[in-house]
Design a protein that fits this description.
It contains ten helices and two strands. With 229 residues, the chain is mostly helical. It has one domain. Helix content is 62%, strand content 4%. The protein is globular. The protein has a two-stranded antiparallel sheet with strand order 1-2.
């Protein structure tokens, strides 16, 4: 097990530490920088840099999971899977601590709760993106696509924040916390759906629909041809 851990650790990038330090510095010193962004109903929305930093942090957790051994890891056994999940859990925990503690100290616990909620949603999307699109190097795709609806479509005609706009809703918004729960559940399901499990599930579904189960022939056995009539 220790050899396997060492092998996987060497294959994964270590630049995540530099990225985490940069994210922390941006969150503390530049988090309050605001940028006006137009919205569909007219006017502008104010995007603060700390929102983008949290998005980058969620992607930063997932992307370093990529390694040169990606093909081997996809079909790896339980020990390698356990190492992969442990690494992801450690990176996610570090991200939660950095965002939560820094935002609570620099601004407020309420703001920290909102950013942690956004981080949970984006991290869940990053894991799902990696699973659906074929690898950890594509973990950024789904999280990044949420920026347009959040910033441009996130308000109704009356100027009220839509219930799903987790960046601008209050930290107590039930709907946004439900989205965070769905994001975490989606990440767990995506991590569970390994290639061998999905193949096994598809086989069970085919058998459930009445498809005959293929019986492998014994080594050395010969199949007799049907007798001519």
């Amino acid at each position: 097990m220790s050899d396997l851990r060492s092998r996987l650790r060497l294959c994964h990038p270590t630049g995540v530490a530099v990225g985490a330090a940069g994210m922390l510095a941006a969150l503390v010193w530049l988090g309050g920088v605001a940028m006006p962004v137009p919205v569909a109903t007219g006017g502008d929305s104010t995007v603060q840099l700390r929102m983008i930093v949290v998005l980058a942090g969620a992607i930063l957790v997932a992307v370093p999971m990529r390694s040169p051994m990606v093909d081997w890891e996809v079909g790896a056994g339980p020990l390698a899977r356990r190492v992969e999940l442990t690494l992801l859990a450690v990176l996610a925990s570090v991200g939660v601590v950095l965002v939560g503690v820094c935002e609570a100290l620099v601004r407020s616990p309420e703001s920290a709760a909102s950013l942690l909620r956004a981080q949970a949603i984006w991290l869940g999307l990053a894991v799902v993106s990696a699973r659906l699109l074929g690898g950890w190097s594509r973990a950024w795709v789904l999280p990044l696509t949420t920026l347009f609806p959040l910033t441009y479509l996130g308000w109704d005609a009356a100027g009220e924040v839509r219930w799903w706009n987790w960046l601008w809703q209050q930290h107590t918004a039930t709907g946004c916390w439900a989205l965070a729960a769905v994001g975490v559940a989606g990440a767990v399901l995506a991590l569970w759906a390994t290639p061998w499990r999905t193949r096994r599930l598809r086989g069970r579904l085919r058998r459930g629909r009445g498809a005959p189960r293929a019986v492998p022939a014994r080594p050395g056995s010969r199949t007799k041809a049907p007798a001519a009539r």
